[in-house]
Amino acid sequence: MTTPLKQHLIDPEICIRCYTCEMTCPIQAITHNDDNVVVDAEICNFCMDCIPVCPTGSIDEWRVVATPYSLDEQFGWDELPAQEDLGEGASGDSGIEALDDAVAALLAEAHAGVGGKSVAPKSASKPSVNLYNLAKPAKATVQGNYRLTRDPDHDVRHIILDFGGQPMPVLEGQSIGIIPPGTDAEGKPHLPRLYSVSSPRDGERPNYNNVSLTVKREAGGLCSNYVCDLKPGDEVQVTGPFGATFLMPDDPEARLLMICTGTGSAPMRAFTMRRGRSVGARSGGMVMFFGARAPESLPYFGPLKKVPAAVLEQHLVYSRAGAAKEYVQDRMLIEEERVAELLTDPRTHIYVCGLRGMEEGVESAFTSIAESIGESWPALRDVMRGEGRYHVETY
Ligand code: NAP
To answer: Rg of the chain's alpha carbons, rounded to an integer?
Structure first.
């Protein structure tokens, strides 16, 4: 018989087609057509680089097969095929057990954060993921839709979704998917778009089964316009929850350094509310660098002003409000001593969320600040990441 092998696959029901895995794969083993993102069994070498970057976990699927599924077969799937029955002896005779062990070890490494991979904070609660997918979405009812920004060219909304009797256990830092109604040019349902939850685990309103999102209207954006136009009482189809590493530590002594731009503030709001409702100022504290064009376009500007400094130290930074353009990384350098002190504390957890473009500037600020105290940022960052204390989510 043909030697069975372990094949790496992607679950089309959960995948949100963000193509991050495809961009990450160092050997171009991942590709896509209009329908699905797929792994080429002839190229994949099980390096596992794609595993931790997937926001939904749909990448982490495996089947033992006699003949690998072809790309065309995978392109045609609406759901993953069940594990085929290869008959007794297939695994023992073929060395598949050894392969299994090797793949399991690599997967454990990918999930454990060795070598720069993401890992959840040690004290974080265990997240629930993928409870709802495209085939079986949750149905939420819109409870509120509030405009957060006064800037006429920058419409950011605070959307509250109620899940009624359906379980939707989300932790701070997780995301959910929203399925826009209607179909695409080929008559297929639209794929979900991912949004970070901006409310804490006990609900936007304490002990209600509701969550909030922070959504910016994008010109021509199919889902952002749908979400920003929602009315109270509308029904919304939701997938998720997603995300198993960008999570908040439950340890009240943990110190949070949060760096965000625009709607990347969503998870930071969730973290702040969680702290506010649980330990408040009796904690390691939180320091935030938050960049926006101007106060009128900074989401939650008003509510932020009411958060006590003992809970949250705020550095609000504007790029279009004065004569000089200032970015979060510029302010970090101005606050070099503050940031350096946080970097040296093993209780510090760093969260970066927002525009992809900010990553380079933030990295270079950390490099310079670490150098000022005789540290190497890449070495420090790798230790922090391995310990679940360094998290980046940029788009
Ligand atoms: P935005 O208003 O366009 O930008 C926010 C601020 O970042 C502005 O002051 C902007 O300055 C500045 N900025 C631009 N380039 C920068 C760079 N290289 N380094 C540092 N700062 C820079 O932001 P937005 O439209 O809200 O977009 C936020 C992004 O976060 C989106 O891409 C979104 O997808 C992403 N995100 C959202 C969530 C969520 O759930 N809501 C989660 C993660 C990520 P100027 O434009 O004036 O130069």
So the answer is: 22
Contacts 24+ apart (CB under 8 A), 58-62: 58/10, 58/11, 58/12, 58/13, 58/14, 58/15, 58/16, 58/130, 59/10, 59/15, 59/21, 60/107, 61/8, 61/9, 61/10, 61/11, 62/6, 62/7, 62/8, 62/9, 62/103
Atom of ligand 1 nearest to the CA of 361: 19
What confidence score (pLDDT) does residue 237 get?
98
Q: Which atom of ligand 1 is nearest to the CA of 394?
A: 44
Alpha carbons 118 and 162: distance in angstroms, whole number: 31
| d(CA 7, ligand 1 centre) in Å | 38
Q: From residue 252, how far is each of 123, 255, 285 by CA, in Å?
A: 10, 8, 9
10-residue mean pLDDT series, the chain (395 residues): 79 89 92 94 90 85 91 94 73 52 66 65 95 94 97 95 97 97 91 95 95 97 97 97 95 98 98 95 95 96 93 97 93 98 98 96 98 97 96 91
The set of protein residues with a Cβ atom below 6 angstroms from ligand 1 is: 195-196, 214, 216, 261-264, 266, 291-293, 297, 319-320, 327-329, 353-355, 357-358, 361, 393-395
Ligand 1 midpoint to CA 117 (Å):
24
325 Cβ contact list (under 8 Å, min separation 6): 319
Domain boundaries along the sequence of the chain: 5-84, 255-394
For domain 255-394, the question of CATH label 3.90.245.10 is answered with no
User: pTM of this prediction?
Assistant: 0.85
113 among annotated binding-site residues: no
Tell me whether domains 5-84 and 255-394 share a fold: no
Token representation of residue 109: 């490494």
Closest CA to 194 of 209, 210, 213: 213
Nearest residue (CA) to ligand 1, atom 25: 262
pLDDT value of residue 96: 53
Length of the chain counted residue by residue: 395
Please tell me the predicted confidence (pLDDT) of residue 114. Answer: 42
Fold of 5-84: Alpha-Beta Plaits (3.30.70)
Helix/strand/coil for 394: strand
